[in-house]
Amino acid sequence: MAELRVGFCGLGTMGAAMAANVARAGFELTVWNRTPGKADAAVAAGAVEALGPAAVGSASDIAVICVSDTPDVEAVLFGAGDSGEGGLAAGMREGSLVIDCSTIAPGATRAFAARMAEQGVAFVDAPVSGGSEGAQKGTLSIMVGGAQADVDRARPVLQAMGSTITHMGPVGAGQTTKAVNQVILSGVYLGVAEGMVLAMKSGLDPRQVAEALQGGAAGSWVLQNRAGRMIDDDYPLGFKIALHLKDLTIALEQAREVGAALPIAAMAAQIESALVARGHGEDDNSALARAIREWSGL
Ligand code: NAP
């Protein structure tokens, strides 16, 4: 695999861990992050740090992106507005491939892929699920959209970051699948928060409740990994509320386009908007429990 040159742009909570796993898998890796000082884990795993996305592009056969939102992927691909600095597209050669692991809008994804195709660069969307823990362990679920040949080419790099890799359809299908994931998660977070608050208010030991229920029909990743934070009312960062709100906005727009009614997701988005407005946007998504606790007098 050493002959395949891989690039990675965006070394946040997810990207830093995913890039380190790509380096550990033996790929020749070049990384970049907008704010300097975040490449340590990847460099320790063997990566080289570049000065900008164009430099990553020219050093890569396959370039991975993992940044926050739709305009951020656009900036990494095509350059940051007035700064005059080029994006990945300025460096990538014909025949190379972009893998976008960010969670962004499906429609914009299709437009970005079409722009890259104009210069002969292939594109797959590959949003991930599994939290910061999954990124560190390399066990993410990855939902992929793209042409079969491009997905086949992306697969060895995806396998370095995740353990369940599913080709969902053409470009954009990965992002649409991720929107479904985020809709389901909104209900699960709210349900676990309500359950833990009911347990506490009823005088039960909420940790014992969570353990007792995990093996039954109410068991879930959120109950297993996030109920403790809700009980402690302490929300160390894994996934920012502001990012989940961004994802629900994408899902609700998709629902509007196709005529689907999503009352739980819409309510979760409203609660998250209130938390963001009160300064909790950078808290972990489990801080949805703050609202339920507060309304319940806890
Ligand atoms: P994060 O910790 O906030 O990191 C965001 C990254 O994006 C940082 O490296 C940031 O660079 C970069 N970035 C943002 N805007 C940029 C721009 N305009 N130009 C260049 N770089 C930019 O977020 P994260 O949790 O790693 O999430 C990254 C993506 O994965 C998001 O789309 C998120 O929805 C998705 N995701 C997250 C999780 C999770 O559990 N955290 C799970 C699944 C999927 P700076 O350091 O310069 O700010």
What topology does this entry show?
Layout (H helix, E strand, L loop, with lengths): L4 E5 L3 H12 L3 E5 L7 H5 L3 E2 L3 H6 L3 E4 L4 H9 L9 H4 L5 E4 L5 H13 L3 E4 L2 E2 L1 H7 L2 E6 L2 H14 E8 L3 H29 L4 H9 L6 H12 L8 H18 L4 H15 L10 H8 L3
Parallel strand pairs: 1-2, 1-4, 2-3, 4-5, 5-6, 8-9
Antiparallel strand pairs: 7-8
Helix pairs in contact: 1-7, 1-8, 9-11, 9-12, 9-13, 9-14, 10-11, 12-13
The structure holds NADP nicotinamide-adenine-dinucleotide phosphate (NAP).
Relevant terms:
single chain, 298 residues, alpha/beta, Rossmann fold, N-(1-d-carboxylethyl)-l-norvaline Dehydrogenase, domain 2, 2 domains, six-stranded parallel sheet, three-stranded mixed sheet, binds NADP nicotinamide-adenine-dinucleotide phosphate
